[in-house]
Amino acid sequence: MSAGLIIVLMSLAGCGFTLRGSDDGSLPIDRLTVTFANSLHPLQAPLSRYLSSYDVELVPRNASDFELLISNEAIEQQTVSLNTRAGAGQYELRLSVEAALHLNGTLMAGPELFEAQGNFFEDTANIGGSQSGREIALDDLRQELAQQIVIRLQAIEI
């Protein structure tokens, strides 16, 4: 390895630079109650997976000092482009939730709005396929929202 490359790598490491997603980090919380606005909240599974990957134990209400409140999700869908028959061809989806963190009933952070957006194509010849394309896009957006929430939790000083 050349001396110039070593100097560049050491400089980047010294300034705290890391590639996005490569910094494992940790959460300042080891036990957390997550309360969703409804019992069948679509963000429940991806958020639980992300929190578990950071060794956060998810516990029932009143079993932790920390409670994360998640609002109902809001979905906006907008036509981006038209197909050759002047029908909608591509849609933009915007998914959002609000989250707030409480410590022993006292608001610590939030409520904060988390948003993610993406696109999907509608195949008018295959309506079933279009619906599954929308669901796949929504699943991806939920993964992104869960990641955003966990990143925000990492930044909280307790």
TrEMBL record:
User: In which family does this protein belong, per the annotation?
Assistant: Belongs to the LptE lipoprotein family.
Q: Name one GO biological process term.
A: Gram-negative-bacterium-type cell outer membrane assembly
Q: Give the UniProt entry's GO cellular component terms.
A: cell outer membrane; transporter complex
Q: Which UniProt keywords apply?
A: Cell outer membrane, Lipoprotein, Membrane, Palmitate, Signal
Quaternary state and interactors: Component of the lipopolysaccharide transport and assembly complex. Interacts with LptD.
Q: What Gene Ontology molecular-function terms does this entry list?
A: lipopolysaccharide binding
Query: A Pfam family for this UniProt protein?
Result: LptE
Described purpose of this protein according to its UniProt entry: Together with LptD, is involved in the assembly of lipopolysaccharide (LPS) at the surface of the outer membrane. Required for the proper assembly of LptD. Binds LPS and may serve as the LPS recognition site at the outer membrane.
Name the record gives this protein: LPS-assembly lipoprotein LptE
Q: Which residues form a coiled coil?
A: none
